[in-house]
Amino acid sequence: MKPSFDLIFMNLATDLAKRSHCVKAQVGAVLTKDSRIISIGYNGPPAGTHNCDEEWPDTGCPRDSKGSCSLALHAEENAILYAMKNGAGLEGTTMYTTLSPCLPCARLIFSAGIKEVYFRHSYAEYKGLKSDEGVDFLNRFGVKAAKFEEPLIDLSL
C-alpha cells in the first residue's frame, strides 16, 4: 500500500527536524499545496549567524524571559519566510510540523493564509502549559489545526 501524502509530508518534517542545530529541541515544518511541497523549515538561527550546538554545545543559546531560545527562528517561521522570500503564495496551503505552533507562530500562520496545520507533538505538553494556545487560536479563527495521529513509517527502500 502506498503511503498517503500526509504521511510523506509528516515524515519529511520529522527528518528535517534532524537538521536543527538547537540543543534543546529539534522541530521541522513542511508547507504544501495541492500535494506539492512549497517550502520547508526547521528551527534554528538565521542563516549566516551561528549554530547553537557548536557555540554552546552543553547549554544551548541564551534563553529569553519565558525560557525559550532567544536567537533562533521557529521551524514554521523559517518555512514561511523562505516561501515569501521566493515569491510563493501561501493562501490555502497546508503545514505539517513536528510540534504544534506556539501562539506567535499561529498568528503568523493565520496571517499568511495557511488553511490547515497538522502537528505530531503538543507544544503545551513540551512546555508544561495547560493548553495549546496556538492550536486554540488557529481553530478559533478558521484554520484547521489537528494532531497527526497516523504512525510514522520508514519510507526508505
UniProtKB/TrEMBL annotation:
CMP/dCMP-type deaminase domain mapped to chain residues: 4-144
Binding-site residues for Zn(2+), renumbered to this chain: H74, C102, C105
Catalytic machinery residues: E76 (proton donor)
Cofactor annotation: Zn(2+)
GO cellular component, as recorded: cytoplasm
GO biological process, one term: pyrimidine nucleotide metabolic process
InterPro entries: APOBEC/CMP_deaminase_Zn-bd (IPR016192), CMP_dCMP_dom (IPR002125), Cytidine_deaminase-like (IPR016193), dCMP_deaminase (IPR016473), dCMP_deaminase-rel (IPR015517), Deoxycytidylate_deaminase_dom (IPR035105)
Pfam families: dCMP_cyt_deam_1 (PF00383)
Entry keyword set: Hydrolase, Metal-binding, Zinc
UniProt GO molecular function: dCMP deaminase activity; zinc ion binding
Annotated family: Belongs to the cytidine and deoxycytidylate deaminase family.
Protein name: Putative deoxycytidylate deaminase
Lineage: Bacteria, Pseudomonadati, Bacteroidota, Sphingobacteriia, Sphingobacteriales
